[in-house]
Amino acid sequence: MISTAKWLDHIKWNPDGLIPVIAQEADSGTVLMLAWMNRNALQQTVTSGEAVYWSRSRRCLWHKGETSGNVQKVRDIRLDCDGDVILLQVEQIGGVACHTGRHSCFFQQLQDDSWVTTEPVLKDPSAMYGL
Amino acid sequence: MISTAKWLDHIKWNPDGLIPVIAQEADSGTVLMLAWMNRNALQQTVTSGEAVYWSRSRRCLWHKGETSGNVQKVRDIRLDCDGDVILLQVEQIGGVACHTGRHSCFFQQLQDDSWVTTEPVLKDPSAMYGL
Asked: How many CB pairs under 8 A join A and B?
């Protein structure tokens, strides 16, 4: 069911009905990831208190951590000045946001003219996803 | 001139040739804004050491702070696991990232079912832009 809530109408959804969402770890300030939400995903995020994104590759709602257990408890939701970007403050359960098993998805650092992996793998992805 | 650098080829540009870029204040951890870069903008960012974005509304390169003086000195550039989001660590000159005169663009907080402005205006926008 599509909600008709005014606060959802206030958002400038892109032509695909999506908005980019930054997830920041509330306690550390670490930027964990960027994903996308549609109207329904944001509504479910608010209702459940856990981040629910829209998977653009799988074309379905994606309750982050539904398989790995690494859910994101949402503490705060902000909208930017243009109404087209959302910032979540989250508690990252399990300490791992990235599907590679790292704390944050931003683990490649530009050094001179190449991307260098600077963050350690904290959990084996095959164990996280039961592969 | 379009650079042929390998580190630029590593990025998954969207169909419009753009990538979303999060700017985070290095010292405070505050997420200041999200904007977009094309290949040329990112190249110029690296060369100049200051954030250069692609303005989707004006369809031109946008050296952040070129009018207001509130440039962003870039300390670190990260790429996410999927290669389609960039995270900058910046020093925000003037302490104001938002065109509304606020520190961060994320000044609207979801409270119950409405967006509430929670951050103060630090600089008069008309003074910043000489209007």
From this structure: 102
Closest partner residue to A81 among B28, B29, B105, by Cβ? B105
Whole-model pTM? 0.96
Cross-chain Cβ contact A6/B110 below 8 Å: no
Across the strands, what pairs with B72? B92
Residue of A nearest to B80 (CA): A106
Q: How far apart are the first and last CA of chain A?
A: 34
pLDDT in tens, B23-79: 999 999 999 999 999 999 999 999 999 999 999 999 999 999 998 899 999 999 999
Among B7, B77, B78, the residue to mutate for chain A (most A Cβ within 10 A):
B78
- Contact flag A6-B79 (C-beta cutoff 8 Å): no
* Residue A75 neighbours by CB under 8 Å, 6+ apart: A26, A89, A90, A91
Strands A108-111 and B72-79, sheet pairing: antiparallel
The alpha carbon of residue B32 and the mean position of all alpha carbons in its chain are separated, in whole angstroms, by 8
ipTM value: 0.95
The DSSP letter of residue A128 is: H
